[in-house]
Write a structure and sequence with these properties.
β5 and β6 form a beta hairpin. With 627 residues, this protein is an alpha/beta fold. The N terminus is likely disordered. It has 18 helices and 14 strands.
Amino acid sequence: MKGVSNEKFSKDLPAWGISLVVNLSVLASLHFVVMQQVARPELSTIISDVADLSDEDRLNFSDRSTGDQIGTSGTNMALAPSTMAVTAPGRDVPLKEKLEGIMNPEIAVISDAAMPKLEGSVTASVSIKGGSDDAAGGVEGAMDRVAFEIQQSLKQRRTLVIWFLDASGSLATRREAIADRFDNIYKQLGSQGKTDGLFSLVVSYGEKTDILTPDPIQDVAKLSDIVRNKIKTDESGKEFVFGALKLVLDKYKNWERNRGPWNRLVFIVTDERGDDAPQYLEEVITQAKRTQTKVYTIGNAAIFGREKGYVRYVAPDGYTTDIPVDQGPESAFPDGIQLPFIGSPSDWKLNQMSASYGPYALTRLCAETGGLYLITEESKGYGFERSIMRRYAPDYRPVRIQEQEISKNVAKAALVNVARMTYVDALPVPSMEFRAYNDNILRTDLAEAQKPVAEIDVPLRRLYEGLKMGEQGRAKLSEDRWRAAFDLAMGRILAMRVRFAGYNLMLANMKVSPKSFPNDQDNMWRLVPSDKIESGPEMRKAAEQAKVYLKRVMDDHPGTPWALLAEKELSTEMGWTWQSFSRPIPGSNQLRGSEEEVARLLLADETKRKEEAKKRAATPKRNLPKL
């Protein structure tokens, strides 16, 4: 009976009911099938020709002054500005002398406080077009490129060109060169097509923003006159370029909007990096993108890994000096350690090398908006081939993205942390010559020289161990810039440890048992580099490791700042030996003397130097402009 009932039930069941039962059965079975898909994270990308790079989030450079001499007291390794001491009427200390002792620039640790929160994932795709490029022919070459960019814009639609000119005294010559080229630029444009849709705006900036043409103009003749005669030199020493951009972009965002779409081109003319990026950079980038504004900069190359460059100043009376100005650095994070070179001839050009790119904030602004940073002037130090430096472009993506990537690679994190330490804790440059007019004078000099280096191995070991922790991530570094920086840092720190350990040992041994002079006329001792390392097997091993790292930098990255620094380090042996020579006791022709005679001569010499110092201090100080 049961089977009959089921048969009857199936016969009575409508066709749609049978279909429903079958489909529900299939769905029920599929419910238990689990399919997994590996999530693919979005990659942060940067698209750039070397002439098309740029990006920064918020630089928090300190307003604190920086100095130029090693041995500045205090815990901050950033140095204070040059004293600009005059050695003779109308003469300043040469730039070479100012820079010979520079070890560490001032680069404040980047702060996240002023950076607006990014919407969405921090790994969202970033496409950047723009960057740094050489402007062949200096300002004139840059202006030819400007004419080309304006011409291309006019082919698309009406164009508003906004000129932002740095009003500081250091830019007077460049402003004049720009004015000389205005007529030629606009004549070129006129000869190649209609310029009815071209309007120009001129703005000067410094501590304050001055809109010199409140109503954009078409009269070309007025432009050069405005640049030459209407810009008042700003003597504040402040370069608030980003605030000026914010103000002007906001003021003219709806200008002539009723006439249809407009292109906007901004041309910044400057020789510095700008002081207010922390407050306004992100907002300005957003404003420029919303108003379809491309930003170009006609400026100087950044100083490699440093903040300060130098501008030559000539006073009306002929007095000349080199005044520090803010021209770098080129990257958002410190990725190069700041150490002195010990035992080798100084080379001030190493402290003013070109980064081959513009300063970080302005270059990023240009890149984010599709513009270009045009380098019209290189640094006073060494320069490098653009074709080689293309492999070593700084990272111009938002700082938050950079921070995330750095934290994920132990080698990058270790390098940034160690580099940052070298900006804070200064290492001394030890004395190399010691007076031996008698044994007491010699021991006194040796003891004084030992004081600053007696505990030096502790911070050096801290630097080494901090970088060593990141060595396991060295193989995962894909960028040439990071690899070069990491290997150079490790090689230089190892070499420094070897040199200081040997130096301390040589002084200690000489103090305990002074050496005899090989020549009776000699009365001075000098430590000179030697291939003989007497400070033990650990230091000899460290010296060999240092050579491996430094040679790898030279082999893998020829023609770069890193290779040049590695070559400089390797050019000097890491051990020490004593060399004797003679020098008369100051104020006499004597080479040696009793303790009383030497003390009398040295006291007389010290008194003389103090009197000369008083005379120099009494000389009225020259008021130098703030550039």
